[in-house]
Design goal:
Oligomer: single chain
Strand content: 15-25%
Strand order of the largest sheet: 6-5-14-15-16-13-17
CATH superfamily: FAD/NAD(P)-binding domain
Structural class: alpha/beta
CATH architecture: 3-Layer(bba) Sandwich
Number of strands: 19
Helix content: 25-40%
Number of helices: 14
Bound molecules: flavin-adenine dinucleotide
Amino acid sequence: MKSTNHNPTFTIIGGGIAGLTTAIALHGIGIDATVFETAPVMHPLGAGLGLAANAVQAFQRLGIADEIIQAGRQLDAFSILDERGDVVTRTDSRAISHRYGINNFAIHRADLHRVLLSHLSPSVLHTGRRVVQIDEQPDSIRVVFEDGTSHRTDYLLVADGVHSLCRQQLVPGSVPRYSGYTCWRGVVHQPGNTLHEATETWGSSGRVGIVPLTNERVYWFACVNAPGRDEQMRRLTGRDLASRFRDYHAPIPNLLAQTPDEHLLWNDIVDLKPLPRYAFGGILLLGDAAHATTPNMGQGACQAIEDAVVLADELAKDVMPEYAFRAFERRRLTKTHYITNTSWRIGQLAQITNPLLISLRNGLFKHLPARLNERQLETLYRVDF
Ligand SMILES: Cc1cc2nc3c(=O)[nH]c(=O)nc-3n(C[C@H](O)[C@H](O)[C@H](O)COP(=O)(O)OP(=O)(O)OC[C@H]3O[C@@H](n4cnc5c(N)ncnc54)[C@H](O)[C@@H]3O)c2cc1C
């Protein structure tokens, strides 16, 4: 236990969605944490992001939901389509939104980061500070940076993403797990597009998602089965992808071909095998560093955002932070494990490429009772704060 005769200091490693949202949530309860981020500057980055009702409810708790909603776009429905564009399943968001508020909402990551950063004092965030080691000492935690300098803190919140060095120091062997599919993302300016729903097209060449954003922009992603870190995949251009998906329904081939190669983002899809704990004394894992999931349920960032609110909720109680971290862990393990495991299985189904199995799967999905789908969404959208 740390001594309690001074205001304890809190440090966050990582200025991603988890780190920034946590800094805002802690500021709301009177804790000014210091954030260290490896990137030299906070560039507008990334592509689109779906945020579900649980994330929106968390932002409401933080008092910043309206700004975030304004920067994004509400969607009427989410459909899974086959290669021809025929509907396999369709979930009308409006039907569920009366219970949980906005439940199908998309935003450009850069817009989300802009809003989050605008709620933090510039002095909170220290960029160009890559953490390479943490040392637990009897009365504090020492964070060591790449340039050899260090920083002491009473409590450490580790939010440095799925590849977290600090987590791998605390839990040796907790390396990211490759899903078997790799993914490209892009955002295209498409004046006059009439899209108002998010779709995923599941077919024999892979999976393509399309999500309309604000300002006539469309976010797309394409997932293809491949070995991990494949050099051939790394070299693919938008035109190569358009050719790969040339038999898919409109506007897929055009969207892919229109994306400038310098705007293509490419990642192997990885997650983290569920960890049995997130709290390690005065150190807590948050966001993808704790519970990275494959993106098949669109919940990775949503869970990072939920983390921030639950942590602030526990720290606001008059207990030692170590106890708050344990209480956080008890509140977060079950839901985050459920999402990682379910999303992994959905990914295996979505990436089937054998035509016979595709037709069996689609037939099964068409006959699934809507109630089953709703029940799953309720599990995601229900928050305990
Ligand atoms: C293709 C794809 C689509 C997705 N779609 C969705 C979606 O629709 N909805 C959704 O909710 N989620 C989605 N996700 C998941 C979402 O992107 C992540 O869950 C989310 O970004 C996690 O935020 P984080 O802050 O925990 O981690 P990260 O975003 O990885 O941020 C970690 C931060 O830590 C910094 N950092 C790393 N190492 C260090 C270090 N050693 N020292 C200091 N700083 C460091 C990094 O630079 C980064 O800024 C998707 C993911 C992928 C790959």
